[in-house]
Amino acid sequence: MTASSTRRSHRFHASLWWLRRLLTAAGTLVAASLLVFVATTLAPGDAATAQLAGQASPERIAELRHDMGLDHPPWERYGHWLWGALHGDLGTSYVNGEPVSQLIAARAGNSLLLGAVAAALLVPIAISLGLWAGLRAGRVVDRAVSTSTLTLVSLPEFVTGTLLVLLFAVGLGWFPAVSVPSADGSVLSEPQVLVLPVMTLLSVCLAQNVRLVRSGVIAATASDAAQAARLGGVPERRVVLRWVLPAAVVPAVPVLARYLSYLLGGTLVAETLFGYPGLAAALVNATAARDAPVVLGVTVLVAAMTVALNVLADALAASLNPAARNGT
């Protein structure tokens, strides 16, 4: 096979790989939106009954349901919403009549900021701690890091968050227990409200990735390449930077990227726990009010970002291991 035909084959496999991933992503989003719509439809009550709350006659409830379009068949309502979503229109809130995209935009920035801060800290801390523990395998430092990460990974996020509040908010008084900015402030102007939610988000993700990098460092340190470099007189510092660190980090990169999507979902838990003004509050309020368009809009947005990050993780894995992409 000539070089040009080999390149064409590689481009074909890469295009086919991306096509499969994009079709899978689109199918996942449609399935997620359908499941959420079915769940909101099967839930007792609807937006009309939630708004009137038994304070009106059945005729008034029926009139409000007609105004909201809730008297149409479910399949017709879902088809109308899906068609609008494909054209960038996520519908209108049943509660206040505002476009769902505007409601989401007002909250999404705070959620993205929380997830971005956690993600920016996750990668360097996980690599640093994993490298530090792996180079000192079996020593006190390694045992301390391993015990700490094992403890963190065994605790649910809400338990970790509660313990952080008890320690840093109630006990030491360093940070606020509730992550709500003042009325005339914003999250960026009061960064202290981010500390405990970010620490809660990092607890599980950091523990898993530190252990992964640590295992890679231990294996790379004992590899033939590292041993040969040492026998050749290469300084230990250079051995770590040239052979150990790349061999340990490269396999962990796709896993780290996949954990970024976990951070996105975890923000909803942290936001609820700390009262943070993000998408979680909008989702909880919309669910209580049976505001189906807002519930659909928020969940589809979270699902879309999760799918995008997972595709990114798959792309990183494929770039590091082309055989996986080519199906060989």
Automatic annotation (TrEMBL):
InterPro entries: BPD_transp_1_N, MetI-like, MetI-like_sf. Residues 108-313 form the ABC transmembrane type-1 domain. SUPFAM superfamilies: MetI-like. It is found in: Cell membrane. It is a multi-pass membrane protein. PANTHER family: DIPEPTIDE TRANSPORT SYSTEM PERMEASE PROTEIN DPPB-RELATED (PTHR43163), PEPTIDE ABC TRANSPORTER PERMEASE PROTEIN (PTHR43163:SF3). The chain crosses the membrane at residues 112-135, 155-174, 194-213, 239-257, 263-282, 294-313. This is ABC transmembrane type-1 domain-containing protein. One of its GO terms (biological process) is transmembrane transport. It comes from the Bacteria.
